[in-house]
């Protein structure tokens, strides 16, 4: 079955990055701030992937970067998911005018560029891992909320909901018993897609110097730092770029696979 | 955005960074200079506007100083001061009255002849209340400017100012009747402004009515880039003939050893500083500042960022200033010494501070290095990345910082240590007095002696940590000659450039 293969391939790619991140918690080849390696040392025995301008081990930086990418990815999906689903449920259940107001607010939030939003958050707080998570999560919540709202509306239009409502079921029970179970597969697929986008957004923020401050070795920052030395030490740019591709493609494959697995219409059509 | 698009974006990020090496260069060319050839200059510094008293920035100095506008005097590329629009000058015995005699036959680009009234107007523009000129405070000593006749200017001073003539090299002589100098010009230089296409190019055409030696070329065009890689690619593909200053050593490899290009390394006046807030604990204690200075391996930092280019200074004065002295041994790199000094200052258990770091290169890299160095002596550094605007308001204006990183580009700027109100707040009566007396000295020798003393003293007190002096690297096509190699204070005289 197509969905299953896609899902498995995605899991392998994401698992690879996840494994690197987990290993980085307990073991690193060098201290991330160890500058004894020599300027732009080539890949070799001592430094498997070489060193950067300050003589820091590239492999170490990449491993720490995996941790940051996944933390920001998962963190912002959590923030965006909770905010988005809550807002979406509210809009879905709300009376006409509140729904209109919320929808308009969401449209504005979605139209707002993620990077601009991030700059605002950074201006109010400061450039840090937390700010990146908040900014990306906030931007994501609009998309999640809009989707949730549509899904909720579709469920609420069903006859059995009307029946349940007439029989006096309170709305919290409606949510937990009927709405959430019906919408979560679609939401899950969407959140998985959002995770990939969040990883990219974090890399862009760090590239622009708005992400976690140095010496946090975010992949985006590694790309930025390697830009000037790309001709002399191309691996410094290629390695974090490749890892970004691996993680984002992996996450997207997982999402595609999930969709195929969760959607009965796709399951039967092969 | 769908999932496939997301993947493409990720791949693009990789490609964007990895691309950027073309190896074709220009084909050598003959040896006869072509006086009609237009010189294409690549730069990273586009002017904000065209007025150097209204925040035009480094870019307008680069494009206009000496090219479009001239001063009474000129600072040559070697750092010497020559007469320019002033034919000669005399100083009264008390040093308070300067009489300048203007050169004859000088006309502005608009056709009007230069008169003493224009000079008076130009000097007063710089000292005006709303002037944003960086040199304004240097000229505050001027009490009055008079124009007794068309060819004579008399400047009266409040006290002696040994640097007056030097400071006048930055005062552009403009037509007193000219309007809107932020978008147009009316100077006396060898070039007139052709067209300024914002965000792209600024062209200078030969001025046929120029009083002096006409330019060795047919005109120049400044091409502005926001990215050093794009700038170097333009040089590689022949789109520009010369790059005014290289900001990364790693791009040099494609030019050194290639007969189509010439690489020159001159003296810059740009210093990278770890500036402490000397008003506030813990950096109000000289011992703590000395400890930090000794804990950082400047040589290694310079090697990391500039790969063998640039030099160490040990204090604020670069070798091109007359009062330079090698002070790199005053606070040597010595981790054990640093630990002892910290303990002596009462910080045996270490300390923690926030380093306000401008977001553009090389500051974040330098900050990461400093963090790792200081960790070895028990100092924890929190890096706070800020924009240039934030730096200006938070650090420069409000003095709300513990320590910061910043490039200081001007020559002769050691005098800021005599001003306790400057952003780093170094308050040392002795130094302030020496610096004040130096400006009022009778002879340049006396001035040099006093500034040497001040310079040594700020080094001994580690008023700041002077990390290193930037190199000034110019890369040009090998058929080019006669270009400035030092670019002091970011000026770039284009009239001598020949193309063959």
From TrEMBL, chain A:
GO CC, alphabetical: plasma membrane
Keyword field contains Cell membrane: yes
Compartments, record wording: Cell membrane
InterPro entries for the chain: BP-dependent_transpt_permease, MetI-like, MetI-like_sf
Start and end residues of each ABC transmembrane type-1 domain: 66-255
Pfam family, one: BPD_transp_1
Biological process (GO), any one: transmembrane transport
TM segment ranges: 7-30, 68-92, 104-123, 129-148, 187-210, 230-255
Entries under Gene3D superfamilies matching the protein: MetI-like
Keywords carried by this UniProt record: Cell membrane, Membrane, Transmembrane, Transmembrane helix, Transport
Taxonomic superkingdom: Bacteria
The keyword Cell membrane is assigned to this record: yes
Membrane topology annotation: Multi-pass membrane protein
Family: Belongs to the binding-protein-dependent transport system permease family.
Name of protein: ABC transporter permease
């Amino acid at each position: 079955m197509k969905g299953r293969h896609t899902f498995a391939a995605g899991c392998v790619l994401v698992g690879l990055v996840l494994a690197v991140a987990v290993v980085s918690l307990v073991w690193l080849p060098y201290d991330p701030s160890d500058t004894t390696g020599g300027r732009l040392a080539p890949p070799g025995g001592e430094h498997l992937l070489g060193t950067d301008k300050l003589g820091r081990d590239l492999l170490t930086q990449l491993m720490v970067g995996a941790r940051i990418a996944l933390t920001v990815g998962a963190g912002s999906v959590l923030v965006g998911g909770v905010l988005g689903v809550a807002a979406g449920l509210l809009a879905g259940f709300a009376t006409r005018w509140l729904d209109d107001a919320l929808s308009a607010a969401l449209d504005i939030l979605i139209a707002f560029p993620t990077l601009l939003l991030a700059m605002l958050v950074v201006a109010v707080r400061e450039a840090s891992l937390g700010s990146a998570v908040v900014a990306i999560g906030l931007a994501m919540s609009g998309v999640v909320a809009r989707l949730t709202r549509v899904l909720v509306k579709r469920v609420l239009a069903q006859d059995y909901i009307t029946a349940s409502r007439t029989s006096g079921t309170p709305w919290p029970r409606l949510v937990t018993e009927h709405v959430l179970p019906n919408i979560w597969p679609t939401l899950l697929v969407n959140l998985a897609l959002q995770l990939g986008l969040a990883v990219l957004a974090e890399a862009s923020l760090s590239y622009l110097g708005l992400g976690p401050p140095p010496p946090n070795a975010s992949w985006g920052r590694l790309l930025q730092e390697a830009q000037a030395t790309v001709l002399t030490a191309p691996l410094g740019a290629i390695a974090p770029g490749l890892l970004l591709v691996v993680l984002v493609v992996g996450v997207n494959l997982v999402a595609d696979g999930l969709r195929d697995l969760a959607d009965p219409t796709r399951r039967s059509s092969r | 955005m769908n999932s496939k698009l997301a993947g493409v974006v990720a791949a693009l990020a990789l490609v964007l960074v990895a691309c950027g090496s073309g190896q074709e260069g220009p084909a050598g060319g003959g040896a006869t200079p072509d006086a009609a050839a237009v010189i294409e200059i690549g730069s990273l510094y586009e002017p904000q506007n065209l007025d150097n008293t209204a925040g035009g920035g480094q870019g307008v100095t680069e494009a206009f100083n000496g090219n479009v506008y001239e001063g009474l005097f000129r600072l040559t590329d070697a750092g010497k001061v020559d007469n320019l629009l002033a034919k000669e000058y005399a100083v009264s015995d008390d040093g308070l009255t300067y009489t300048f005699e203007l050169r004859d036959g000088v006309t502005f680009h608009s056709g009007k002849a230069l008169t003493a009234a224009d000079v008076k107007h130009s000097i007063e523009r710089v000292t005006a209340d709303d002037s944003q000129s960086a040199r304004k405070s240097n000229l505050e000593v001027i009490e009055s400017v008079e124009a007794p006749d068309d060819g004579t200017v008399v400047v009266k001073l409040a006290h002696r100012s040994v640097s007056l003539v030097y400071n006048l090299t930055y005062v552009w002589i403009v037509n007193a009747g000219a309007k809107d100098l932020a978008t147009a010009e009316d100077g006396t230089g060898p070039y007139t402004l052709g067209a300024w296409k914002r965000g792209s190019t600024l062209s200078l055409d030969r001025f046929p009515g120029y009083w002096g030696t006409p330019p060795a070329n047919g005109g120049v065009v400044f091409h502005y880039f926001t990215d050093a890689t794009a700038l170097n690619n333009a040089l590689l593909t022949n789109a520009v003939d010369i790059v005014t200053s290289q900001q990364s050593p790693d791009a040099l490899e494609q030019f050194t050893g290639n007969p189509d290009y010439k690489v020159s390394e001159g003296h810059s006046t740009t210093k990278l500083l770890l500036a402490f807030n000397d008003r506030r604990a813990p950096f109000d204690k000289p011992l703590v500042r000395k400890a930090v200075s000794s804990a950082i391996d400047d040589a290694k930092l310079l090697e990391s960022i500039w790969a063998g280019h640039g030099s160490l200074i040990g204090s604020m004065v670069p070798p091109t200033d007359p009062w330079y002295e090698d002070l790199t041994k005053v606070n040597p790199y010595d981790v054990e010494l640093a630990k002892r000094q910290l303990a002596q200052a009462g910080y045996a258990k270490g300390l923690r501070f926030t380093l306000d770091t401008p977001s553009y290169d090389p500051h974040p890299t330098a900050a990461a290095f400093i963090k790792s160095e200081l960790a070895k002596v028990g100092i924890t550094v929190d890096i706070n990345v800020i924009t240039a605007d934030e730096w200006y308001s938070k650090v420069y204006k409000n003095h709300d910082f513990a320590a910061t990183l910043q490039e200081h580009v001007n020559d002769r700027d050691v005098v800021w240590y005599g001003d306790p109100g400057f952003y780093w707040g170094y308050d040392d009566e002795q130094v302030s007095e020496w610096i004040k007396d130096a400006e009022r000295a009778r002879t340049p020798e006396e001035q040099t002696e006093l500034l040497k003393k001040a310079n040594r003293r700020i080094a001994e007190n580690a008023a700041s940590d002077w990390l290193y002096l930037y190199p000034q690297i110019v890369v040009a096509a090998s058929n080019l000659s006669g270009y400035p190699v030092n670019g002091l204070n970011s000026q770039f005289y284009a009239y001598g450039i020949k193309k063959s």
